[in-house]
Every structure is written in structure tokens, then in C-alpha cells.
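Appendix B, Record 12. Input sequence as logged:
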Amino acid sequence: MTDIWSFLLQTLTASSAAVLLLLVKAMFRDKLSPRWQFAAWGILALVLLFPAGLGGRYALVNWPVLLEAFKSWATGDYGSVTQVLAPIPLPSLTLPTTVLDWLYLFYVAGVLLLFLHYLLSYARLRVALQRETATEDPMVQAVAQRYYLPTCPVIRVPGLSSAFVCGVFHPVLALPAEVEPDEKVILHELLHLIHRDVAWGLVICFFRCLHWCNPLLWFCANLAQNDLEARCDQRVLEQLEGEARRQYGHILLSMADEKYARAPGTSSMANGLRNIRRRIQSIARFKMYPAGMSLVSVCMVLVLAAPLLVGAKQEVTPAFHAQPNSIHRILAHGRTLRCTTYAGALDTYAKAFLVGAPDCDYQTFFSYLSICTPLSQQKALAETYMDIKNHGTKSPMLPADPDTFSGNYGYRIYDLVSVGEESYEGILAIPLLEPPPGENWVESGESWIAVQTVRAEKQGNRWVVLPQGDFSTLAGPWRVGGLYSPTTVFPFTTYEAQAGDFTIHVNWQTMCYVESIHQDSSYGFSYPYFSLTPEPDGKFTIWSSEDVTATYTGSPEQRNRYDRINLYAYPNYPDSPAVSLPDPNEISSENGIEVTEKRIAGGERLSKDWKSPLHLSMGFWHDRQDFSIPDSYTMRLSFNGEAPEELLLLPTEGGAPHD
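Logged structural output:
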């Protein structure tokens, strides 16, 4: 915890867990044995030890969103996200400058003062005990031997009314000097000793210090300490029989006002009159717990552990999208999420426009944008939303509808390449539902497309998207399955070589998207649909396409001497091994085209009136593992079935899309 907000997130998360535990314990108070009543507090202890909001998850109540919304409302701060780095306070290295800084400093001071108070109390007690001489007490030895328990040094203290164990690593058993304690009291303390209950008491004191200003957690700490004593009572009763059990209850009543009842670092049978009465009620219920409750107790603890420890991951789609909400909550929802991959950031950015366009869903649109917008720009995002809401200005949304097109593919990103360490840049393409103002519908096989150059980069622990300009519109091909073929509409890398009367080109282009096609079978039949829910942790499906063309550069009189062209080509990457290509004349079909990840094959039988350029490979797409671009292409090219010619195609100057 580094500021007052991270403390609030930690203590509110623990408080909601405490309320659930208190309700469950109250329901099963007469069913669960003291062992399991105390064991249930272990879940709350783990909640207190784990940083709240770890891994983007929350327990029971989505405190991160509520706290961020309140913080934005109270302070106007949209540029930070509250994080709990550690469950303990970490002092700031800078001087306080605001009221909230001073408030956090006051909290840290309270933690230190309470810790110092407990430390001094324990130190005074140890000094007082060291004045006495440790011995081997015969009564203690007799009780230990009878019940097969370990023992420790014994100190007789004048004025002490009851026994207690003090210390964890070098414990001593303090006994009254004036009277001989009952053997059952010694048995109680030796059971504390063997089960390290003093250490558990220190853990409870530790949590008291951390959350000294939370009365609910102090109440839980008192109950946990009482359950610790009740658990020891049960262990004592398991060793006793008949009248000895009733006598044990009378002994407890006589210790209601013990001097060292709450001393840190000690165990004591006494812990206040009210708590003694509760323990006696537990004694009365001894051996009345239903059979099989141990299994029920284990199941109950496991069921509680799931929502309290594992928690729930925040949904990407806001739960409030169907009702009006403040900009504080809208942006808090997105800000508390984060994109863990560059693919997830670009997917979220694209889907923000897709989901916002058809129904003008401003709330979801800005919530999605805030997921992938840099924290430094969140304030401007809030001002844009308020301007739209208060003045009715036009939203920067696109009129895009992914369901209009075949296959329901909503967007594509072209020519994505690395432009630096943890930074990628490419062209986002989104089909438009209607032509831009002043434009008409385009010819069949083409569509109006909105395009924007976007950059994804990592800032801190989140990937964000930085638009590199405004959206523009153009008409381009929209092929079957929603795949654009390589054309001058989008940049591509060109590789070139001269072969006789032809200039051979290979046009390389990449395209990627996060797979969002799902099958809906709710109506008795299955059909694909495009999911508009962003995937901040998504990974790209990457495709590449290679278009091979041959442009005739010879004299018109020599054109008719060409009646067939066949080729095999292979991309060369850095450190890639040499490849032996087959004879292209082995392509059996007259117009054979084959594209695999390892090679391109093409062939065309020319008619008498063939026209240049010839498309020898038609831009088929194939799945890839990365965005790497070939250094060159090796090609075997054959004219008219003659012996093939070896070619090396090199990139043309400026051919790479992001050079």
C-alpha cells in the first residue's frame, strides 16, 4: 500500500470478505466445532495477505471500479489506477503535499505506533519474567508425562492469578507463585504450547496493526482470538472425562478478569467475562456436533475460498451499459482493466468503434476506449464524452456494422510491423455500413473502408493504442471470407527481377486480427457471428499474401512466341537454409496455382490475345507465426516448357511498407 487509495482498496476488500465469513460462521455456529470455527479465519488472513485486485481480480464486490469512480469524482484524477503492490504500508519517499497524502501519513503513523505499543508491552512482560528463575516444575512435568506433551522452562511469578505461555522461539510457562494451579489449567497451556497458539496470537496482532482504523476487522480479530481459545478448550475436553469437564468450566468462570488476558506474545485461559461465557456454551455443546461435519467443514472452507481468494475477473463488457452512468464509472471500468498484449490492445481499440457505431452506445464505446488509451489521455477522453453529452456534438464513431458483410469479419490490421522495442504499427481497416457523405456505392466486390494508422506500445504494465492520424475512407476489395487481397489500396513490399522480356514482381502483404468468430446454436441451427467483446489478453491470427505478376517489357512483335509460363518461388529469411526448388514444368494443370507457407507455385497457359501484366499467383493467404518479411525470393521460372531460369528477386527501393 503506497497511498490512501491503495489502503482503502485493501481494507474494503478484506471487509467484504469478513462480512461473508461472519454470516457463514453465524449460520453454522452450532454445527461447526471450534477447530473449524478458527480455521475459517485462515481464509480472511489470506485475503489480508494477498494484495487486493491482484491479476485484475476482485473478491465479492468490484471495489477497484467503485474506488476508481469515487476517486475521479472526488479528485478529478483520471490518469492513475490504484494498485496494491503489497499488503503492508510502504512509506512514500516524498513529503506530503495534499490532504490525502497527510491522511495516508497519519494511517502509517497509526500502524507504527500500535506496533510499537505491542512491542513495548511484550518487552516489559519479558523483562518482568526474566527477574524470576526458570525451573523444572514437578506438577508441570507430571501433567506433560501423563498426556504425552512437551514442556518448557517454568517461572513462578508473584501476584499472578493464572498461568500463561509467553514467547514463540524461547517460550516460558508463567505460573502463580502463591498458589498451585489446577492441572487442567496447566494442560490448557501445554496444549497452547504444542500447537504454537502464541504465534497465531501474534499474527492476529499483526493484522490489528495494519487495519487499526477498521472497526470491522478489529471485531473479527477479537472473534478470531476467542475462537483460538475455544479451540484449545476443545482439545482440553478431549483429554478429560466426566466430572473433570464440569470442573474445567468452573475454572474458566473464575478467570474472567485476568491481568494478562490480551497481552501480545502470550496465551492465557482468560479473555474477558463475555468471551468466557461463549466458551462455556461451546463446552456444553462438546460432542454434540453432528457426525460428518468435518467433511462439511472442509467443503464449506473450499467453497468460501473460491470467491474470496480466487475471486472473479472483471468482465470486459460493462454491466451498466444498458443504464445511464457517470463518466467516472464509465472510465473507471475501462481503466481498471488493462491490455496485456499488443494484439489485445488493437482488438479492443477496433471493437470500440464497431460496438459504438450501430446504436451510438457512447457508454460502451468510451469504456472500451479507456481500456486501451494511455493513462495520460484519460482526462481528455472524459472531456470528450462530457462535450458529447452536454452539447450534443458529434461522436468520433464510425458508421460500421460488421454483420453487413460475408463471414461477419469486423476489422483487419495490415502491414503490422515492429517499430521499436515493445511497439508495433499497422493500418486498421474497418468496413463501413454506408458510403461517406457525398460518395456513392461502389462496384460489386468492393466496399467503402475506414482506415487509420495505429500504433500499439507498452506503457508500464499495460498496452495502449496511439492513433497516428485521423480515419480516412477509401474504396477497396472485400473478398470472400473478409480478406483483402494485396493491392495498392494498402502498402505492400515488392520484390523484383528481370527475366528475358518480363519483369517479375512478388507483392508481399500481411494481415492480422484476433479470432472473434463464434458459433450460435440457440435457434436449433448453428451460424457464425462476430463477437464485439474485446479480448485484452488476445493474440493475433497472422496471415500473409504473395501476389506474383509478370509484366511484358519486350517488343510487341515477340509477344506471340510466349504460350506458357510456370514458376516455383521460395521466400528467403535471415539465416534460412538453402532450398532446392522443383522443376516448374512439373505443374500439371494448365493454370496451376499453389501457395504454401514454404513455397509459391504458379502456371498459366497463354491465349493468343493475352494481356500484360500476367497474374501468376492470385494473392492467396496463408497462416503464419510472425510478421517477419522475407529478405528476398528465390525463383525458378520457365517459358514455353523450356529449361527453367534461376532468379533472385530483391526488394525494390521503398517497397517495404514501413521503411
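Residues 400-407, 480-486, 589-597 have pLDDT under 50 and may be disordered.
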